[in-house]
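User: I'm preparing a small set of examples for a lab meeting where we compare how different chains pack in three dimensions. I only have the primary sequence for this one, and I'd like the structure in token form so I can line it up with the others. Please keep the answer compact; I'll paste it straight into my notes.
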Amino acid sequence: MTNYRSILFDPKTGKTICKFPDLPGCVRNYPGTAASAVLPIKLNTCKKGKNSPVEVAICGGAPEEAYQRAEAKLPLLPAWLTCGRIKITDTEVKWNIETMPTPRMMADMLILRTEHIS
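Assistant: Understood. Below is the structure token output for the 118-residue chain.
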């Protein structure tokens, strides 16, 4: 994930496998970095000869100009309230945007045993 763009990258070959649609709405990385996680993969839903569905969530982040405003000692901008979710194994990949209860940035996402994200 870079700003609002995402790719699937093969670290062995150094090549991009595919490019995903731009994440709508806002920039998601440094300095107000969004949190991201691969959601729990349910192996029992896999059909013979097919890969298990894989979904990624990217939550929060800050506006692109947040760093410059902070450096200039201007009022700080709030973090984003949204999460983008994308099933990277779908044939027609698209982002689904959800709203969180509170803004979030520069955080880690922890997957609990209940499959909830903290």
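A couple of notes for your slides: Strands lie at 7-10, 15-19, 35-38, 55-59, 82-87, 95-99. Residues 66-71 form the longest helix (6 residues).

User: Perfect, thanks.
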